[in-house]
Every structure is written in structure tokens, then in C-alpha cells.
Task: structure prediction
Amino acid sequence: MKLIETPRDAWQGINKIVPTTVKAQYLNTLLKVGFDIVEFGSFVSPKAIPQLADTAKLLKLLNINSSSSHLMVLIGNKRGGETALQFPQIKYISYPFSISPTFLKKNINTTIKESIQFITEFSKKALKNNQELITYITMAFGNPYNDNWSIDIIRNCVADLNKIGIRKITFTDIVGISTPKNIKDVFTAVISEYPQIEFGFHLHTTANTWYNKIDAAYKSGCRSFDSVINGYGGCPFTGKELLGNLNTINMLSYCTKNNIKLPKIDTKQLSITINKATEVFEY
Result:
């Protein structure tokens, strides 16, 4: 089981700018907890998301030498990718691909064809740089924009990414459209066919629907989950209701209840981080 903590997804939904030093204090606390990956920022247009314009400055303030967590940033285009390649401290680079042409246009102003071309070229550059691209497939469980959606589309998308050489794919529901059934259908359609790929789950959800969805993903073979402490954040580019992220505390409780082996989580440090998060996200 891998746990990816994504404060980047929490910060992007806050209108008031959180000072870089405040972010750094929080992240340095977070990096001591023991998560596999921490997605701390993104290299995207500062006009689109002013909150994340300080990612490069923030990186310089992080104490990563004593942390077991790998760092990850999100990119949306070639310019962001080239910036990420300049920082060897960043192990993973996430890219929000989508099988929805409408959402791709809304989110990163591109097309499916252009995205595939970008993934093909950039993933090779990242590997040469000892970094790895994690491809997120948004709208993986349905489509709120009347675009075509089916399990076959998912299969074909994964097949294309596999041919490129992508070995980490995360299915994403950021509008709350998933159900336990279609979560099971999506994961079971590809996991057994592509054992060389690590499949993950990024979920925006309500407090009373998260358990059955996580349960469906785990029982279908998913072993990598994104979450945010206290469930903060959400995507501001869907044009739909801004749902919160899966709460890390809920994810941990699910693992405990089901006797799932986790990375070594420092529970004392986690408690400190939870208290710190409450302060940080008051901005």
C-alpha cells in the first residue's frame, strides 16, 4: 500500500495566498510523518493558480534529507515540465491527462491528441533525468460534460499509455461521479492485464460516501491512494461543485480496520501535522 499526501490539491482551492514560509513550516512537519509521496506544489501558470506560483521558492525551504517521503509536483504543459526537470529533488511529476476532451480544455487548455504527444515526449525526458511521470486519468469513472465514456475507452487509454512506457497511472474522480460499482469495473478491467503498471486512486468525496468507494478500489486491486489531511481542497476547474479530497485520517482508519499494512507512519508526528494543518488552512 502506498499513501500519497497531496497538500498541493488543498492549497489550489484557497483564494487568500498562504505565505511561502507558512507552507514550508507545514510541509516540513508533514515530511516527517512517513508518507510515500508528498505532492507539495505545481509548475503551472501563476495567472491560473496564483497560490502555487511560489513552488520553486518553497522547494528551497524544505528539509528533505531526513525524510523518507519522495517529492512530487504537478505540471500542465511543456513549460512546467521543463521547470520540474531542473530540480533533481523532485522524484515524481504528475500530469492531469483526461479521457474527457471538455475537461482537458477547461483544465489545461489542450486536446487528447496533444496530451498523448506530450506524455510520450516528456516521460522519456523525465526517465533520463531519474524522475518519473505519473499520469492521472481524470473523469475515469464517468463524464459530467456529455463526452463519451465507457470501460472500453478506459482500456484503450491505458493500452496507449502502456505502449508509451508509463508505469504509474492514477484514476481520478474529482466531481463525485464514481460509484462502488464503476470503481470496481474500471480497476478490474485493467489491473490484471497490466501487472507492470501501478494503478492509483485520487478521490474527491463527501464524508458519507468515501468508505464504500475506497473499499471498492482496494478490493479490486488498487494499492496506491491519494488523500489530504482533513480533506481540504478540490479542483476549481471542473465547473461543478467543489468537493473536498479524501481525508487522510479516513484513509488511515480504513487501513487499520482492514488490517492493511502501511508505510511506517509516525502517529505522534501525524497528530502534530493535523494540528498544524488547521492553522495553515485558515487562510
